[in-house]
Amino acid sequence: LIAAGLLSLLGLGCCWLRPALQERSGGGSANCTVLAVRQLGERFACTFSCGAACRGTARYPCLQVLVRTSRSSAPALLHEDERQLRTNPKCSYIPPCARDDQENSENVTCKQKYWKEKVGSQPFTCYFNQHLRPDDVMLKRTHDETVLLHCFLWPLVTFLVGVLIVVLTICAKSLAVRAEAIKKKKH
């Protein structure tokens, strides 16, 4: 358990903690306001699945939400999160891929109305990283405080349980030796 705790701490530190800290070191949160919401003429392919043997590709229009942050006057492109940014850095929204292109277009249009009518010019919290992507902001972070907590908590608990087992084993052995010595003194 001690080795498993140390190895998992090392593994999670390299795989989760380091990227999370890099993301947090160059960025922060800001207040964003919507400048423009538009659909580009460009359409992108997505893959849908409708069962084990049913797969295909469909297309969706590209929706861009341009925002202004409280940290910069330059417009920035809004993304849902880092995963969506990596999947399609040109668009702000990727709809759940449906078989029908029309349904994908309706999904994007619905999201466009949401950003224009519901959010409008109301400020909201967004996240940025000036070092990695200065022209993009995210609506939510993939690596938040809970990820950092879990990267430390569970390997540390595993390590401490291993140490506790070793200490209890040593104590039990010590007590057994003492009990044997007391038993020999009585006889």
UniProtKB/TrEMBL annotation:
One of its GO terms (biological process) is detection of calcium ion. InterPro entries: K_chnl_Ca-activ_BK_bsu (IPR003930). Its main location: membrane. It is found in: Membrane. It comes from the Eukaryota. Residues 1-22 form the signal peptide. Keywords: Glycoprotein, Ion channel, Ion transport, Membrane, Signal, Transmembrane, Transmembrane helix, Transport. GO terms for cellular component: voltage-gated potassium channel complex. GO terms for molecular function: calcium-activated potassium channel activity; potassium channel regulator activity. Coiled coil: none annotated. The chain crosses the membrane at residues 152-176. The keyword Signal applies. It is a multi-pass membrane protein. PANTHER family: CALCIUM-ACTIVATED POTASSIUM CHANNEL SUBUNIT BETA, CALCIUM-ACTIVATED POTASSIUM CHANNEL SUBUNIT BETA-4. This is KCMB4 protein. It comes from Ciconia maguari.
